[in-house]
Amino acid sequence: MNHMDRQIRVAILGCGTIGSELATFIDSDECQQAQVSALYDLDQSRSISLRNKLLSNPRVTESIEEILLDADVSLVIEAAGPDAIQSYSKDIVLAGKHLMVMSVGGLLHGDIYAELDSIASESGSQIFVPSGAVGGIDAIKACRDQLDVVILTTKKHPDTILDISVGNIKKDSDRKYPREIFYGTALDAVKRFPFNINVAATISLAGIGPIRTMVKIVADPQVSGNVHEIYASGSSGIMRFTMENIPHPENPRTSYMAILAAIETMKHSSGRGIRIGT
Amino acid sequence: MNHMDRQIRVAILGCGTIGSELATFIDSDECQQAQVSALYDLDQSRSISLRNKLLSNPRVTESIEEILLDADVSLVIEAAGPDAIQSYSKDIVLAGKHLMVMSVGGLLHGDIYAELDSIASESGSQIFVPSGAVGGIDAIKACRDQLDVVILTTKKHPDTILDISVGNIKKDSDRKYPREIFYGTALDAVKRFPFNINVAATISLAGIGPIRTMVKIVADPQVSGNVHEIYASGSSGIMRFTMENIPHPENPRTSYMAILAAIETMKHSSGRGIRIGT
Lengths: 278, 278
Hints:
Two copies of one chain form a homodimer.
Chain A: E1 8-13, H1 17-27, E2 34-40, H2 44-51, E3 59-60, H3 64-68, E4 75-78, H4 82-94, E5 98-101, H5 112-123, E6 126-129, H6 137-142, E7 147-156, E8 162-163, E9 167-168, E10 179-185, H7 186-192, H8 198-206, E11 214-219, E12 226-234, E13 237-245, E14 247-248, E15 251-255, H9 256-270, E16 273-276
Parallel strand pairs in A: 1-2, 1-4, 2-3, 4-5, 5-6, 7-11
Antiparallel strand pairs in A: 7-12, 8-9, 10-11, 12-13, 14-15
Helix pairs in contact in A: 1-9, 4-5, 7-8
């Protein structure tokens, strides 16, 4: 029940849509408690382009190791994709940094979630998983032990779905839409749609786990943004949460809301005063 | 971004259904980080009865002032009603204690919310307002600046509604049900239904405020628990959250879920490791 220092030095891993938006927020007047201190992207031209838009003139690093060794960095925001979580999240926490995870699907692979939780519990580092593009994570985690059923139905435009088992789901005039293209566990959903279904990972980690949480994905050309419907039931009652999110203008796979949720999580992790919500 | 001490000493204000449930959880093996240190209730027999059920043998106090002066107490859980918030919340925070607010409606009176936020920001005390009997507070607070409309519709059995302007809304065979008995701002809802509509206060504080958040209350004898429906829309999209909560067996005005949300908030405020949700 305490706070990060007033001035949190943040490193951003991944300078795509999400990383850039978060860096820009931290760089703004609205965010007094933090500043962007370092940037990393596999494609260094993206880090440089982002640096040139920021007032705080962060360091562009050539490797993640440079960030791990930088004693000045206290929080690492991962916006680099699920592979980065698998490769670097433990090192980040072992290096004594706090971590915010955007590619939540990466936490479902192997034992990484339990290992990270344990390392962070020992070290005092904190790991933040924002609610992302859905609401109701608060209720799902509060009622976790009472829930029997959690089902996520996600509807997306076929052009924005990337199924790694078959490639892009292109709109195909021979096909009938809307069409259910997947029904299975959150664990399997994250494996097949690693760039689409972070919310499935977040819901399963908050609730009854990646094997018991079921996911249905519907390709629907009538949907312009992302539609997420959560149904959960158990001895505490029944919940239904529906979100129709506006897509991010620069990357239609990303909900604007996922970025807003990460910003709100940052505000609370570094802020003082009244904290609303579970 | 740090934690309360491993052993948080908790004082409970109000030993009714909610205070007793929370004390029992803190007293259990499941809660390693906290222990119940003091109890207060206007009706001292309730404090004594609760103490006798707890292993930690907390002190039964005769006044709230005794708790304020007790340097051992680091967290005060208010479960005593909106009047206690108005009368004592500032003193609690000024005394350097953390505060968890269950009677959230009490925060809507006068300037108390802004004052508390300011005192807590200065002192480093934290004030927790759990999500209560609804889900989606996470999304509402993340999208706060993008939302134009937030409407809560609450359906309750007539026997569980206490309208202080007319007394209990008894089931009346001359009346047609379901019947809308209130439509107005969250601020007015909290004034007329102080024991029913904490969720309206929580939603309004998380979102667009108690004057712009609208509340509809429907008396419906077909409803056994509480049904809360939230509709919110704006430039980030449209959200709909529906909760059908099982009522608490000992107090049908209380949703079991409100207690679960408070327990989850406690776990996170005192815990370490991975934190899921905004």
